[in-house]
């Protein structure tokens, strides 16, 4: 749809009405310009993001109480709209946890009891909201579980499935492909574009159980590090500044930051792209 809108030419000899009809677009979509969030909403989103990082089980009413203590007596409907826009969801027991629902693209969780013993055996992928001084963006990253090495990342102003697939393909081109990729059950991962891409690459698909953030724990820890060590300390002024800052951060994270869980080595020291896991010998329990 966005590609079609870019084909509209105000200087063309035919009218905008005719161009829209030929492209299958509604004229209102051509003239409409999204209204950015207000300064106050951006401050609220920044507070909600940090609160969710520390207390992921808090729902809308608890977040409303928290914002009230911070001097923002806002309506619960406003909070619900903002956290949906940020892609946040509280972790709590839900009904019918044993049912996978109607989503035909949901896949089972494959990592339970699996011994992760090599690089490129298991990658994890996730998307997070990134606040800026004015506005916000979304960040997607892929993490090799064995080495904690960030194999790929990118920024976007929307959470489109195409963006996630492009980031994956770039990571595979640089580092080779993993045996398994684990994600949550977000709409970007429970769709034909994502599932078809992994099946074509012959990569096994693993997904968290609904509401189980600990299934993707390593990349959740990465988000905490990214936000507390860079994003919250130095809010970027725009997307270009944010991209440059994240490039420097991930270069430091991969090549200079030592991890106690890696015997005080850096992820780059542990990560070994040429070492691949024999798919046939994998015991997925």
From TrEMBL:
Pfam family, one: rve
Single GO MF annotation: nucleic acid binding
Gene Ontology terms describing biological process: DNA integration
Domain Integrase catalytic, residue spans: 104-275
Protein name: IS3 family transposase
């Amino acid at each position: 749809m966005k590609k079609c809108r870019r084909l509209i030419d105000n200087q063309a000899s035919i009218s905008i009405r005719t161009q829209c009809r030929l492209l299958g677009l509604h004229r209102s979509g051509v003239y409409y310009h999204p209204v950015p969030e207000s300064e106050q909403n951006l401050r609220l989103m920044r507070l909600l993001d940090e609160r969710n990082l520390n207390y992921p089980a808090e729902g809308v009413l608890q977040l409303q109480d928290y914002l009230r203590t911070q001097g923002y007596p806002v309506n619960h409907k406003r909070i619900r709209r903002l956290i949906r826009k940020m892609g946040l969801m509280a972790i709590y027991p839900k009904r019918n946890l044993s049912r996978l629902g109607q989503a035909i693209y949901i896949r089972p969780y494959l990592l339970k009891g699996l011994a992760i013993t090599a690089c490129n055996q298991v990658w994890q992928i996730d998307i997070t909201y990134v606040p800026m001084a004015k506005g916000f963006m979304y960040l997607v990253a892929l993490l090799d579980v064995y080495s904690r090495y960030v194999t790929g990342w990118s920024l976007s102003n929307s959470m489109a499935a195409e963006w996630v697939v492009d980031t994956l393909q770039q990571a595979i081109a640089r580092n080779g492909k993993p045996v398994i990729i684990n994600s949550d059950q977000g709409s970007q991962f429970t769709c034909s574009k994502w599932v078809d891409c992994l099946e074509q690459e012959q990569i096994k698909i693993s997904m968290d159980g609904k509401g189980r953030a600990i299934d993707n724990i390593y990349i959740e820890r990465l988000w905490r590090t990214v936000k507390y060590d860079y994003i919250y300390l130095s809010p970027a002024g725009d997307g270009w500044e944010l991209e440059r800052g994240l490039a420097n951060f991930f270069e430091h994270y991969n090549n200079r930051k030592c991890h106690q869980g890696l015997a005080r080595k850096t992820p780059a020291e542990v990560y070994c792209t040429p070492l691949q896991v024999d798919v046939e010998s994998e015991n997925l329990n």
